[in-house]
Amino acid sequence: MNEVKKPYVKLVNISYNILETIRWAADVSRIRIGEDPVKYCERFTREELEDFFLKMLREQFGTPLEYIQTVWYLDNVSRAAQQQITRHRTGTAFSIESMRVVPKENFASQMLYHVPDRIAGDSKKFEEFYQSMLNIEEEYNRLISEGVEVEDARGILPLNIFSTITMSMNLRSLMHMVFSRTCAKAQGEVHDIAVMMMEELRPYLGDKIVN
Fold it and tell me: Is it the case that residue 209 has pLDDT exceeding 80?
């Protein structure tokens, strides 16, 4: 039996000079910063920029965060989790792997689906869950072998099946998603994804902000 797979989260691209951009974008609306925003930000230390960002988060002054764009690639993520992620529509773009054209003939035998923690931690429940997935895979492949199109056979696939998702999200929307999905009530898989995203941001935003 294959090992239960964890989500894969990769920050593909992010705006340049993040903390500096946020600082001058916040200041430019209330003071004269001069003609060169980059030169203006040279007066601040990294710690001062991080502290200013934290202050903005506490005060919920989010507009300057909208100037920062991030691009993400997520794999080993269930369709159920993707439904929750795509509810965060503001300042975002999504591309999700299409099961209408991509066949999933080995999803169960290769365990390409999410196993909830409460099931993974119970051997009896896990075995029942695993066998159920194998049964679905068998029926899915039977339909395709009998000439049913992939886009029609996908109708019996489970909600917990993995597929990839690529998304672009500005930092304001991203921070809102992360904060709302790392609370105690968040579903386990999405909680783990949000934590991994924050870890990917750590080199850019600093330990104070991520922690």
Answer: no
Torsion, CA 137, CA 139, CA 145, CA 150, rounded to 10: -70
Amino acid making up residue 90: T
CB atoms within 10 A of CB 156: 12
| 8 Å CB contact between 81 and 20 | no
CB neighbour list of residue 63: distance below 8 Å, 6 or more residues apart: 25, 26, 172
pLDDT of 74-115, one tens digit each? Answer: 999 999 999 888 887 776 789 999 999 999 999 999 999 999
Residue 34, CA distances (Å) to 15, 24, 37, 65, 66 in order: 22, 10, 7, 21, 22
What does pTM read for this prediction? Answer: 0.87
- Dihedral sign for Cα atoms in the order 163, 185, 209, 40: positive
- Distance, CA of 78 to CA of 12 (rounded, Å): 20
